[in-house]
Amino acid sequence: MMMRTEGLTDSEIEARLQRPGAGLPWPALLFVRYYVGPYVAAKADWQAETARFHETAAQITAIADKLDNGQLQKRILVPRLRGLEDSSRYWSAAMTLEHVMIVGTSIRDIIIRLSQEQLPPGKADTARVKPQGKLPAQTVLDNYKSFTAMLMPQIESAVPPEKRDAKMKMAHPWFGAFNLRQWHWLLAEHNAIHLRQLREIAARL
Prior knowledge:
Layout: H1 10-15, H2 26-40, H3 46-65, H4 69-73, E1 76-77, E2 90-91, H5 93-115, H6 137-158, E3 170-172, E4 176-178, H7 180-204
Antiparallel strand pairs: 1-2, 3-4
Helix pairs in contact: 3-6, 3-7, 5-6, 5-7
């Protein structure tokens, strides 16, 4: 059953959700770690995932373009969704777009570093990629359009085909050690997760 939010402040709603970085429920975590990572992400086709990224980005933009500034900024609690942390369920459309850009930029940098057989500094942490929600909504949407237009060309330019099988790996807190092809799959998958979230937000406005 969905939490009732009538009369609650943003802080009260957030207090009823799990903390940022709490991760996925244990059964879901086992599924992504031992099935999705080695049998889906590891076998993904590079060009197909590039196309999926562009397709999901276009669908996200189409939904956001139909919302006015007030709707883009309104926080909506969505149901539990596959691949979405509990703490991420109470975002606005603009916050969702901001998060996708934060994560996408980080994954781009990881992919490029791994293609150079270099381990990126620090570690992946889902608690550190949450949106701040401080930028004007239209600015976020404009930034998202620029981001999705540039991201894959940046990766393609930096990672030619002969470098896509680099062996270096970096750990993801849910999936475990991922090589750059698996991180590339995650770019498209992450878009797909938040496309589902955006659809739920738009349906409740």
